[in-house]
Amino acid sequence: MRSRNSYDSTLWKVRFVMSTDNHEVFTKVNLDLYFRELSKEYKRLGGRKLPVEIILIGGAAIIESYRFREMTTDIDAVLPSVSIMKDAINHVGDRFGLPNGWLNANFIHTESYSRRIGEFSKPYRTFNQVLNVRIVTAEYLIAMKLRSGRKYKNDLSDVVGILAEHEQNGNPIGYEQIDTAVKNLYGGWEAFSQDAISFLQDVLKDNRYLTIYDSIRQSEMQAKEILLDFQQAYPGVMKEDNVDSILENKAKTGSKTFVLDQLAALKKQRERTSKTTENRSHKDRDER
Length: 288
What we know:
Blueprint: H1 4-21, H2 28-47, E1 52-56, H3 58-65, E2 75-78, H4 83-96, E3 103-104, E4 121-127, E5 131-136, H5 138-148, H6 155-168, H7 175-186, H8 194-206, H9 209-233, H10 243-253, H11 259-287
Parallel strand pairs: 1-5, 2-3
Antiparallel strand pairs: 1-2, 4-5
Helix pairs in contact: 2-4, 5-6, 5-7, 6-9, 8-11, 9-10, 9-11
């Protein structure tokens, strides 16, 4: 029998390949189309009198809720344990040429999963009276993204994007809300990396979300390129627990900088600007 560590390692490789080698792009428009077709297929297979619920998390929840991100390459969700739903998902995938696992619950085996996710979701839309789609709410999405904290995907830029859009809409999200979400989902910050905690603190303190977003997103895309090149050059070597060290080593030996480096650079720039402004203020007062 395979160990849990072996299973988790294999699952991570599958998810990494799907996120980098998947040519299907899901948007709000086509995702709603697929859900509509899924509800029809579920009905056809016998689910007419048995409504089911799906809870979207990650990129799917974000593209359905926000404007800053327009697409994702996989759909993570909490799925019902109804056999005909699995068949319906496969049938819709075959019909539209979608990759295997286009709608999946693999994330329940990752560290970002919590059994309490459903408690902090909200209704999104009901399709054909049988498929109720729900979405994890803002601060809980942030908590889950921070818990995952992958520097080669959209995790950290998604955090900034959510903060930015809420700020623009006049409904800012503060540390207290995120802290409550973390405690509700995971019991506290103990299992979070120090990088993730520092990232959140610095982003909230800086508050220049749009500038930070562009910089962090560029860094994430660079990180993904590095990992793809590494995977091709050294097949079988990359694992979930050595990704950060691979990126750190590359940053030391190359010209590219990555997520936390970008944020540190922005922080220094902000401090220099603040110091310059302060010095000018002192000079103006002295002259007067």
